[in-house]
Design brief:
310 residues; alpha+beta; Rossmann fold; D-amino Acid Aminotransferase, Chain A, domain 1; Dna Ligase, domain 1; 5-stranded antiparallel β-sheet; 9 helices; binds adenosine-5'-triphosphate; binds magnesium ion; ATP-binding
C-alpha cells in the first residue's frame, strides 16, 4: 500500500513514528503537507496537486490536522476521500470533534458522563445565573477554541467568575462555563483508542498548584490501568464521535469518569513514552484491516451487481 501522513512538519515525533511504522509494515510511506495541496474539482473527478504534481495511487491517509488549519485541512481530507483513499480519520469526524460544544452535545446524547456545562450567547447580566447553572463557584471557564490548556480559567469565587465571563464577552470570545471537578486533583486521564480498543492510557498530573494537567503546562505522565467504567467511557466517546483513532480526555470524579474532550489528532510522544506501546504500529495495523475489509465489501458488491460475469 501507499500511505500518506497528512502533516505540516515531517520532523514532528508523531509524523516520524507513523512513517517508521508504515515502512516497518512493508508499505510505502509519504508525508503530504495538507496546507500545500491544491484541490481540483471538475466533472472528470477530483484531484490534488501537490508541489506541482498530481497525487495519484494513494491507498490510505493518516490525517494529522492542527487546530489552526481545520477548515483547509478537512477540505483536503474530503478530497482524498472522494479520490477513494481510505481515511484513518474521516473529515466529518474531525470537524465534529474540533467543536468542543458540539462534541459535548453528542456525548451527552450518547449518555456519557461529563462535567455540567453551560453555553451562552453573550447575554448581558446573565453571568450570575450562568454560574448558578453549573453549581456556583469554584467554576471553570473555557474558550471554545483553546488548546494546550491556554484559555482555561479556574475562578475560585462567583465574583471572579463573573468578571472573567464579562471580560471574555467584551472581547466577543465564545466560552463555555463548567462545573469544577475538585476530586480530579489537577490530574486527568488520556485514553488512546484505536479501532474500538484502548491501546494505551496515561494519567497526567499537573505541576504543583496547577489545576491543568496539560503536558505543555508542565504536567507529568504515568502509565495507568483503566477501570471498566473508564474504558467503556473512552470507547463510547470515540464511537459517538465516529472516530476510529481518538485521544479521549477524562477526569476521575465521585460519580465516575467525566469526559472533557476527544482529540482526533492525538499526539503520540507522551503516550508512547509513558506506556511503551507501539501506538503508531497499532494505527497502521488498523488501516491494513480496514482497507482489506473495504475491498472485500466492494468485491462482493461488484459480484452481486454483475452476477453473470462471475
Ligand atoms: N471542569 C474541570 N474540572 C477540573 N479540571 C478541569 C476541568 N476542565 C479542565 N480541567 C483541567 O484543565 C485541563 C485543560 O482543559 P481542557 O482539556 O478542557 O482544555 P485544553 O487543554 O485547552 O484543550 P486541548 O486538550 O484541546 O488542548 C484539563 O486537562 C484538566 O486538567
Ligand atoms: Mg485538554
Ligand atoms: Mg482538544
Amino acid at each position: 500500500m501507499r500511505i500518506a501522513v497528512l502533516s505540516r512538519n515531517p520532523h514532528l515525533y508523531s509524523t516520524r513514528r507513523l512513517m517508521e511504522a508504515i515502512r516497518a509494515a512493508g508499505h510505502e510511506a509519504m508525508v503530504v503537507d495538507h496546507s500545500q495541496c491544491d484541490l481540483i474539482i471538475e466533472q472528470e473527478g477530483p484531484s490534488i496537486i501537490y508541489k506541482g504534481e498530481k497525487l495519484i495511487d494513494i491507498d490510505a491517509i493518516i490525517p494529522r490536522i492542527g487546530a489552526s488549519v481545520t477548515f483547509y485541512g478537512t477540505a483536503v481530507v474530503r478530497q482524498f476521500e472522494l479520490m477513494g483513499a481510505f481515511p484513518a480519520v474521516e473529515s466529518q469526524a474531525i470537524v465534529r470533534s474540533r467543536d468542543k460544544l458540539r462534541s459535548l452535545q453528542i456525548l451527552s446524547k450518547a449518555g456519557l458522563g461529563m462535567p455540567k456545562t453551560a453555553f451562552t450567547n453573550f447575554s448581558k447580566g446573565g453571568e450570575k445565573t450562568l454560574i448558578e447553572r453549573v453549581g456556583g463557584a469554584p467554576l471553570i471557564i473555557k474558550l471554545l477554541e483553546g488548546t494546550q490548556g491556554l484559555g482555561v480559567v479556574l475562578a475560585e469565587t462567583k465574583k471572579a467568575g463573573q468578571s472573567v465571563i464579562e471580560a471574555f464577552h467584551g472581547l466577543k470570545a465564545r466560552i463555555i462555563v463548567q462545573e469544577f471537578i475538585k476530586e480530579a486533583k489537577g490530574a486527568d486521564i488520556r485514553a488512546f483508542v484505536v479501532n474500538g480498543k484502548v491501546v494505551g492510557a496515561m494519567k497526567r498530573q499537573g505541576a504543583e498548584g496547577e489545576f491543568r494537567s496539560n503536558l505543555h503546562r508542565g504536567g507529568k505522565a504515568t502509565v495507568i490501568r483503566l477501570s471498566k467504567a473508564e474504558r467503556a467511557a473512552a470507547l463510547g466517546a470515540a464511537k459517538a464521535l465516529g472516530l476510529d483513532i481518538a485521544g479521549v480526555d477524562m477526569l476521575q470524579s465521585e460519580r465516575g469518569p467525566l469526559i472533557l474532550e476527544v482529540n482526533s489528532s492525538p499526539g503520540l510522544e507522551g503516550i508512547e513514552k509513558a506506556t511503551g506501546v507501539n501506538i503508531a504500529g497499532e494505527i497502521v495495523k488498523f488501516i491494513e484491516e480496514a482497507v482489506e475489509k473495504r475491498s472485500r465489501k466492494r468485491r462482493i458488491k461488484h459480484e452481486q451487481n454483475n452476477p453473470d460475469r462471475h
